[in-house]
Amino acid sequence: MNERFIESCHSCIHYERKPETKSSYYQKAGERGILPERLSWGINAICKDSNKLKGKISEINAVYRKAEQGLYKLLNDGKIHTSIWGSPEYPEFYGYGVIDERHNVYDLLIVYSGNNCSSSFEVHLFRGFGKPEYFGQAFSYCRNIINKKPH
Amino acid sequence: MNLDYIEVAKFMGKDKLNTAYLQRAASYEGAEKYHFDRCKKIEVWHYESSNHIAVKGSLPYWLNGHNYFSSLQDWKEGLEYMQGCLNINLFSGIVNCFEFGTVQEIPFPESAFLRNHVKITGMESRQYQQGNVITGKEFISPSMKFKMYDAARNFKNKLDKPIQEELSRLYGWDKAKHYIKLENHYRKPEAYFRGNVYMNELLSPNFQNHLKNELLSTYQKIMKTGNIHLPEKKGDINAGTLPLLILKELEALYNFRTEDLLKAKLKEIPEGILSPADRKARMKTIRDNLKKIHFEGKSEYDISELLQAKIQQECESAAAPFLCEEIGEEILS
């Protein structure tokens, strides 16, 4: 895939934690109308230990507000859920998730944070890249734009 | 040389179209029209009654933002991505129509090139103009259309600056030079190739080579003017020679002989006006002027050799994959 095409499939959304909350993050910048403006971050449900869940490091859960428009609002009654998995091959990123295989949507979310997601993070969303064969290209693209960014 | 616009149809059988990446553009009786993932350049039509879909559009524009060049690899990756999103195998789809062509740099202005490519026997001709300037020509038959247009003008008007810069960087495109796009538009591939053409067949190297040679042979069928060698001395281009130059150029197109037409016209003039001696004298002058006009073997606007060289070059680079990979890596790094 050439870079121009990947760029056209890519959106970046910046979230910041709401003060005095543990896991409530609000959109502060980036394209609106894709993900809900508020995300719940972290594993809140207790899961049994299993091999399947090895590598899972967090979760994103969210619901679109009634008046809010969003790319995934018609899926699953406007409820968003994805597990966030570690990406040891790309250690500069916190992890990645896919929205939402259950509904035949394969959009890749790459999470980047300079503070280990304690106060803010960026979600880099790649439309249609949620299949393993595209992960490498999406991560490389993300790596390039993060390296170019002034910190 | 590459594929451009395409229409692929696929009967879905038990497969179900995934509409998550489609935006509905219009509803018709028995058909829904969608745009593919916010890209208006790719249309997806869903015909419920016949349970098939059709994907229409220019994949190079969708993938690269231009149709200057797109490799087979681009096509494969693009189709794989699209079929993953639609949940339909497009490689086994039937190709309903497609374009195959190339952008060629030419050593003369595009309008002069187009003006000197006149017709293909048995095909209808159509010309496109902006004011007095010719910007494109088409030669049309029921199953195929050959298109030529001013590519330099198209790129300058249609493409954003960053894409124009990318064309310069990757392919050496130069704003100041002249470029023409030549394209075979197969309107009914099943009739032209005497059988259905499937997407995976279209992308095979053999078929691609066949299309390259087809493009060249269609181009060679065009009747071209500009094969008259202009007299070099000023004295040889008098007012009587100029109309003869034009008549001589038109001979091949309209199948006549200039000398015969002029002789017949002289015979029509009554003897009261022109005596036989006068006729003889005028015919002699005409013959003397005709002697100043010489033909060259082929039109100076004929770019067959450039196209041949391009095909040759593409075949050689396809035959040397390791070399290509190395060059590719260099570019990437």
Architecture overview:
The complex is a heterodimer of chains A (151) and B (333). By secondary structure, chain A is of the alpha+beta class. Chain A has helices spanning 3-9, 132-148, and strands spanning 10-17, 24-30, 38-41, 56-63, 79-85, 95-99, 107-112, 120-126. The longest helix of chain A is centred in the C-terminal third of the chain and has 17 residues, at 132-148. The radius of gyration of chain A is 15 Å and the shape is globular. Chain A starts with a helix and ends with a helix. Chain B has 333 residues and is α+β, with helices and mostly antiparallel strands. Chain B contains 13 helices and 14 strands. The two termini of chain B are 26 Å apart. Chain A binds chain B through residues 1-2, 4-5, 8-9, 75, 103-106, 127-128, 131, 134, and chain B through 18, 20-21, 37, 39, 62-65, 74, 77-78, 81, 84-85, 87, 163, 166.
Write the layout of secondary structure elements.
The complex is a heterodimer of chains A (151) and B (333).
Chain A: H1 3-9, E1 10-17, E2 24-30, E3 38-41, E4 56-63, E5 79-85, E6 95-99, E7 107-112, E8 120-126, H2 132-148
Antiparallel strand pairs in A: 1-2, 1-8, 2-3, 3-4, 4-5, 6-7, 7-8
Chain B: E1 2-11, E2 22-28, E3 31-36, E4 39-47, E5 52-58, H1 59-64, H2 72-86, E6 94-106, H3 110-115, E7 117-119, E8 124-130, E9 133-140, E10 144-150, H4 151-158, H5 161-171, E11 178-186, H6 189-192, H7 199-202, H8 205-221, E12 223-224, E13 228-229, H9 241-254, H10 258-268, H11 276-291, E14 294-295, H12 304-319, H13 321-332
Antiparallel strand pairs in B: 1-5, 1-6, 2-3, 3-4, 4-5, 6-11, 7-12, 8-9, 9-10, 10-11, 13-14
Helix pairs in contact in B: 8-12, 10-11
